Amino acid sequence: MFIHYLDLSWRSFKRTPLVSFLMVLAIAIGIGITMTSLSVYHMMSADPIPEKSSQLYSVQLQTMDDGSTWRTEDNMPLQLTYQDAENLLNTPTSEKKVAMMRTGFSVYLDSDKIKPFIGNARMTTPDFFSMFNLSFLYGGAWSKEQENSAAPVVVITQEINDKLFAGQNSVGKLIYLDDASYQVVGVINHWPLNIKYYDLNNGAFNQVEELFMPFSLIKAKELVSWGNSNGWKHENTPTFADKLQSEQVWIQFWAELNTLEQKQAYQNYLLAYMQEQQKRGRFNRKELEYKLRDVNQWMQYNNVVTEDNKILVGLSFMFLGVCLANILGLLLAKFLRRAPEVGVRRALGASKRQIFLQHLVEVAMLGFIGGMLGIVLAQLGLMGVGQSYDYYENLATMDLTMLLSAPLIAITTCILAGLYPAWLVCKTNPAIYLKSQ
Predict the structure, then answer these.
(1) From the CB of residue 15, how many other CB atoms can be counted at a distance below 10 Å?
(2) Which residues pair with 187 in a beta bridge?
(3) Helical spans, DSSP H, in 210-286
(4) What Cα–Cα distance (Å) separates residue 262 from each residue in 84, 153, 258, 291?
(5) Is 416 a residue whose pLDDT tops 60?
(6) 185 close to 141: Cβ distance less than 8 angstroms
(7) The whole model's pTM is what?
(8) How far apart are CA 113 and CA 151, in angstroms?
(9) Pairwise CA distance, residues 132 & 197, whole Å
(10) CA triplet 356, 362, 368: central angle to 5 degrees?
(11) Above 90 in pLDDT, residue 310?
């Protein structure tokens, strides 16, 4: 029976091609615009590391004195001071932890064949790669000994390896960063990250860094931060050593806590650390405060998906509603025009339920065709978004969930729009049309 309904629906489309085309076009435009905004929103709000997002925690310490405020909802600084990050790193605890900051270098080889370029770098610790699930194409992370000795080593991305070494195994080779040489110890595979969740302070949708180097090089080389550095009180820091001991916040810090017991133990440790620092004249507050937020909580706290994005999705669905209102009017005109035909079918024994289902199948087919065309329009829209905003390039795409959602939304909304016209035509009194024949 379903096949028969499909055949009747197709015949109906061919009998009224113009009206059918207008309805398909209306739903396609509505779905295209809706799926463009919904796909970007979906990619923005998606869990960037679902396999362990609940185990990775961003660490915040309330370093400010009582009465001082910050630009966050709970007045907590988003980053740590260098001295706090170094102290937390050097404490012998069992959990994995990383401190990091963003900087950059002029990158070149001892060759005139490769033009120098600016490379973004992340100063971090060896646990970074295992914590955030990076895999290596060649080599691996630097050792604890190399970290402690501030060894001139670097891990590069696959893209940089292709650019500098034509994709060959570059482990052991030298590259030049500014005025010093560094030995390549590892090459990471392509890291398709849509949201740079590990450092939301410096652009949530920026590209990941191309160079990864020991955190200890910050102090050894007096490297400046290319990210945000903030202070909450006036401090005189004429030298780099003064900055390292200041209350300026410019370091990101993460810890991997796999169990509730491990999380509780780390919370106790943080409180004990702050109490110990308070005795040294820091953290001048009545109540010591810290925060551990997992990946999704951290993204929500930093408003990765802004109200503007949510409003845009709402407006796109409102536009889809306008398209469906127009479709409703066309369906009413089309179905009621077929009232004599329906009256004859009712007289020949067709039930109201059969008539109703037949018309619902017709509007569902309409939704399916419009939804498939809407996917094409959405892809064009996403291409435009990606070309207009560089930081949206990785977000302006439709994953499998969105590809399946488009026809589903189209079919569902068309069925909702077609319920009233289908119900109305089912009320046709066959006697009226039989007398008129």
Answers:
(1) 11
(2) 138, 156
(3) 217-221, 240-244, 260-279
(4) 20, 32, 7, 15
(5) yes
(6) yes
(7) 0.82
(8) 27
(9) 10
(10) 135
(11) no
